[in-house]
Structure formats: C-alpha cells, structure tokens
C-alpha cells in the first residue's frame, strides 16, 4: 500500500457557515503546494488525518474538514440546515476563506456524491476530481444496501442490523430507523445508532475488520453517523430527481478525473461507478479486483495515491 505520512497539520481552525453551524477544518502538507480538499463519507462520518496520507505533503496543500453535524463541527448530530446543498455551499465558503482559486476535489462513498454535486455546481473551482466507491443516492442503491441485496451476502450481520426494528416495520428499514433516530427515546436512539453504524462497518472492506466495527460503535460517532445518514437517505439526498448526479455528469466534461472502485464493494456496488465512467469522458475508471469499499484497502489506497501523484506532476 503506497501512501504518505500525514504529519501534523500546519493550520487548524473553525469557520462559522451559518448562524447554527460551525465547521472544523485542518490543513496538511505544503502551504504553497497544489490545493486539494478531501471530502469524507457518511454523510456524518467526519474526517481523519489518515485522509491526508493519499497526497504527497511536499507537493500538496491538503484541506480536511468535518461536514455539518459530525466530527469536531458543531452542533453535534444536528439535522437542521443540513442538506447536500448546504454542504456544497460550505465547500465554497471554505475555499474562499482559505484564499484558494481552484483545487483538486477527492472523496469516497458519500464523499464521492458530494464531490460530484460540488463540481457540477462549481466546475470552475475544480482542477481535477478523484472519487472512490461511487454513491449517487439513487433509490435502487439505497434499497440494495438497506432493504434487499446485501442481506443475501451477509445474512448473519443483517439479522443483527434489523433486530431493533419490529417485523411489521421492516418493509421500509430506512424510514423505520429514521423515526427512532429522530425520536425522543434516548435509549432506543443509541441502540439504533449503534446497530446502523455496525452494519456498515462490518461490510465495509473485503476482509473483516473488528476494530473498525468497535470504533463505529462509539456512541458519539454512531449518533452523528446514523442520524445524518438516515436523514439524507429518507430525503433522497435532497436531489431534484433520482439519478441527478449521473444525469448531470456532462457538466464535468472539462474536468479530468479518476474513478477508483473496489470490484467487491458491497456498500456501493461497481455498477454505479461503471455508469458514471460511461457518462464522464475525461475520467479514467480503475477497478480494483481484490477490494471492497474501504479507502485503506491496499489496492484502493495505491490507486488513489497514484492518481494524486499524477495530478501534481
């Protein structure tokens, strides 16, 4: 696995983006390097210093931030004023605040969704795009992982996932979880947040990672992750129509890109990455044959790092 040491951030700060929300951000690498922003997944997962490791710190100025309601951004697990388009606006606010003209935009899973939405809205602010584990929040993608599809591969884990939901409500798992995650019973909210988060953590990579499952079970993490994800999912990503990100891929025509996709990604199956590559002529699709969804799987990490190396030459 080829990655760079992240080192310590050279700039850490907070940025109010509304009367309610304040973002936490950090910068790594070379203050005079090629600007790049990494968009974390979820929505609601928060950023990690490891996300800076895909970039040569001598060549890149790497920006990480926690999206609304998660990580160190405040208020924690907040759903008000928290939509895709609020986040797209936040990225622009942060770019202007940091006095960056154009930047490479990189993101995986939900971060790929947000990267595409941002680039389609502000193409002149984007120099290149690198996306991994492509997710566009189409109804069929959500149903695959949260209703019927992935459960055929992981029946044991699925049984744990649906356990908090009464059989009578299992015809719409996402909505059933959302009701509980936004309800008033704090005990049920925590139980559901952990079950939701553990389901994704347990299926994230080609090989099981028990440590990741326990990390995702942390109460603070799980509440933000599960509440914000279910909020976005019941609202279909706040898109105008199902398939908006793919339909608007023509807006990326002038932006070079790399699409990295694990062949055995169960959370965001390869079909969506394939469809995006057919509509985005400037993008190169890299299918990693021995990987699932996680960014730190060796083949995926190497492909992302090679892409950032190529774009800074």
Report on the structure:
The protein is an alpha/beta fold. It folds into 2 domains: 11-138 and 238-311, Alpha/Beta hydrolase fold, catalytic domain (Rossmann fold); 140-236, no CATH class. Helices cover 38% and strands 16% of the residues. The protein is built from 11 helices and 8 strands. The radius of gyration is 18 Å and the shape is globular. It starts with 10 loop residues before the first strand and ends with a helix. The mean pLDDT is 97.
Q: Could you tell me how far the N terminus lies from the C terminus, measured between alpha carbons in angstroms?
A: 20 Å
* CATH homologous superfamily (4th level) name of the largest domain: Alpha/Beta hydrolase fold, catalytic domain
What best-fitting shape do the alpha-carbon axes yield?
globular
The CATH topology annotation of the largest domain reads as: Rossmann fold
- Quick one: biggest sheet? 8 strands, mixed
SS summary, helix count: 11
What's the architecture of the largest domain in CATH terms? 3-Layer(aba) Sandwich
Order of helices and strands: EEEEHEHEHHHHHHHEHEH
Tell me the radius of gyration: 18 Å
CATH class of the largest domain: Alpha Beta
Total number of strands: 8
Report the sheet-strand fraction.
15-25%
Whole-number count of domains: 2
- Output mean pLDDT: 97
What class would the helix/strand composition place it in?
alpha/beta
Main β-sheet, spatial strand arrangement: 1-2-4-3-5-6-7-8
Uncertain runs with pLDDT below 50, 5 residues or more?
A: none
Helix content: 25-40%
């Amino acid at each position: 696995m080829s990655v760079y040491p992240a080192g310590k951030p050279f700039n850490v700060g907070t940025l109010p983006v509304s009367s309610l929300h304040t973002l936490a951000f950090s910068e790594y690498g070379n203050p005079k390097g090629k600007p790049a922003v990494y968009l974390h997944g979820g929505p609601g997962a928060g950023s990690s210093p490891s996300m800076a490791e895909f970039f040569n710190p001598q060549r890149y100025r790497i920006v990480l931030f926690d999206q609304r309601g998660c990580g160190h951004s405040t208020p924690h697990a907040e759903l008000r004023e928290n939509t895709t388009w609020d986040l797209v606006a936040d990225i622009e606010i942060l770019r202007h605040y940091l006095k960056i003209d154009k930047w490479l935009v990189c993101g995986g899973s939900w971060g790929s969704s947000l990267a595409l939405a941002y680039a389609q809205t502000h193409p002149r602010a984007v120099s290149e795009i690198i996306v991994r584990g492509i997710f566009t929040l189409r109804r069929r993608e959500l149903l695959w992982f949260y209703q019927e599809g992935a459960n055929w591969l992981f029946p044991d884990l699925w049984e744990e996932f649906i356990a908090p939901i009464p059989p009578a409500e299992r015809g719409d798992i996402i909505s059933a979880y959302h009701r509980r995650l936004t309800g008033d019973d704090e005990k049920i909210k925590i139980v559901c947040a952990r079950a939701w988060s553990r389901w994704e953590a347990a299926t994230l990579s080609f090989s099981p990672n028990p440590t990741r499952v326990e990390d995702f079970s942390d109460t603070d993490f799980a509440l933000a992750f599960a509440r914000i994800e279910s909020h976005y999912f019941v609202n279909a990503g706040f898109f105008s129509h199902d398939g908006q990100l793919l339909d608007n891929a023509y807006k990326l025509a002038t932006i070079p890109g790399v699409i990295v996709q694990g062949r055995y990604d169960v959370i965001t199956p390869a079909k969506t990455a394939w469809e995006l590559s057919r509509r985005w002529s400037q993008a190169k699709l890299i299918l990693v044959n021995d990987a699932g969804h996680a960014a730190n799987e060796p083949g995926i990490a190497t492909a992302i790092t090679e892409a950032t190396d190529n774009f800074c030459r």
